[in-house]
Amino acid sequence: MEPATMRNEYAEEKGLSRDDLAADWHTQFGRWFADAVAAALPEPNAMVVATADAAGRPSTRTVLLKGYDERGLTFFTNYRSRKGIEAEANPYASLLFPWHAMRRQVVVCGPIRRIDRAETEAYFGSRPRSSQLGAWASPQSQPLPDRAALEAGYQAAAERFPDEVPTPPHWGGLRVVPETVEFWQGRASRLHDRLRYRLTGKGAWIIERLAP
Fold first, then answer.
1. Which one of 78, 82, 100, 145 is most buried, by most CB atoms within 10 A?
2. Is this structure's pTM higher than 0.70?
3. Which sequence positions are flagged as catalytic?
4. CATH classification for the domain delimited by 15-210, as one of 3.40.50.11890, 2.40.50.840, 3.40.50.720, 2.30.110.10
């Protein structure tokens, strides 16, 4: 099919108004995240993370959200990966939660920072052993000669750490600290509702409606 001919007209549904929103973005995010979980969406914590290199050339990938609170939204990665390197060189990022089945999106923009090492250690310790070994085995974003090289790396890590697996020094958490958080609700006739929390220069949050 031609992409230009593919169209899904949204039925008239309950919209999103200023009165619907919580006083702060993280409480509102928690409400929508709980809705996505309750709707049994596949991997509701999956989000698209956009970063850019020092020259401003962007890249995106899907990762899993592992925590959120008033400080921001956190995920974990190899700091030597493309996103890890870009987060260091150009420390600003955007997150997108594409909850299409619910006609909803959440878009977050703000600085990206490494989290405290103690937080990384605590999370790494909660991961399954296979995931812990995978963090040692994969030179993330680097070229591999073949699949066998990756599997050999995993086997080598398993032999190196027969018991407890330590946290790799090059692996850890990144937190996006929001400056804006937009809640998007699909509506009929493409007249979608877009309400955005925005941090002002005075350190206060305001809520504003955006044109669809």
1. 78
2. yes
3. 190
4. 2.30.110.10
